[in-house]
Amino acid sequence: MTAAIEAHDLTRTFGENIALDGLTLELQAGEVLALLGPNGAGKTTTVRLLNGVLKPDRGRARVLGLDPLVDGEELRRRTGVLTEGAGLDDRLTARENLTFVAQIRGLRGRQGETRVDDLLGRFGMIDRANDKVQGFSTGQRKRLALARALLHDPEVLFLDEPTSGLDPAATRDVIDLLGSLAAEHGRTVVLCTHFLGEAGRLAHRMAVLHHGQLHAYGRPDELAARLWDGVDADVDLGAPADDRTVALLVELDGVQAAETTASGLRVRVDDREAMAAVVAMLVAREVPVYGAVPRTPTLEDVYFAVEAQFRKDRADGHG
To answer: Per residue, what are the HEC states of the chain?
Structure first.
């Protein structure tokens, strides 16, 4: 099966600055990739290279089997892009903004009108369809810009900070919409974001960039297995565990670590089976146990672990 996105040794410099250094990754159709990293990590450069807006100094890319440099026009007909700045025309209404782009995309007449109305309705903008964009909130602008990116039903979506500047309710709405979009028609999504919580809700894979270099790539659970040996679990005791209980736990076979939390304790064990000994010891000491739940590392946990490893490697002179 042809990958939706492939990059091999993709490299781009700007003068003395290496914006992207040897990026290699592969993404299958229908997957969501969270492209993560601090400002200047190379996220936006990656998106521009994959869209054929920039030419690489070295390496190659394929999106939907197409070469972005050779087949850029065809590729952009099959992809949608949402930049951090919505790029809407404040002088036009919401409907006019979408209709203008629909015509450029070849959606004219009744076909274009139907598509515009469908998207305005889907993104909760039908009541503001005839209002000029200059009076819209940040959240309304984001929803309209996302609708615009979807006018031509793209197979791949590139989203650059789609929820920046949004309040919590608007962020939730946009994330819910993105989740449904990714699930439909095998649509592939590349999500550039600083908001790790939203990335964790959507992403099948994560790529962590730093100074243009790829420091981690894969599914969050796969990366977690490489970063940590063992399983974390939260144990609900109804109150913080006392120091003596913690000290006894770490002496048990299969227990790697234990620490007090506001509602009990968190333990790291060799495997799930070791939790039975933890619970048995607590019960033997007449400590009430209300629950013991294995804690799967989140994308946020993995990201900060990768960042910590990156800083350690640099301090040791390896990065």
So the answer is: CCCCEEEEEEEEEECCEEEEEEEEEEECCCCEEEEECCCCCCHHHHHHHHCCCCCCCEEEEEECCECCCCCHHHHHHHEEEECCCCCCCCCCEHHHHHHHHHHHCCCCHHHHHHHHHHHHHHCCCHHHCCCEHHHCCHHHHHHHHHHHHCCCCCCEEEEECCCCCCCHHHHHHHHHHHHHHHHCCCCEEEEECCCHHHHHHHCCEEEEEECCEEEEEECHHHHHHHHCCCEEEEEECCCCCCHHHHHHHCCCCCEEEEEEECCEEEEEECCHHHHHHHHHHHHHCCCCCCEEEEECCCHHHHHHHHHHHHHHHHHCCCC
- Band (129; pLDDT cuts 50, 70, 90): very high
Q: Tell me: the pLDDT tens digits for 89-122? A: 999 999 999 999 999 888 888 999 999 999 999 8
pTM, full prediction: 0.81
pLDDT (tens digit, 9 = 90+) per residue, 232-246?
899 999 999 999 999
pLDDT of residue 218 exceeding 80:
yes
User: What is the chain's length?
Assistant: 319
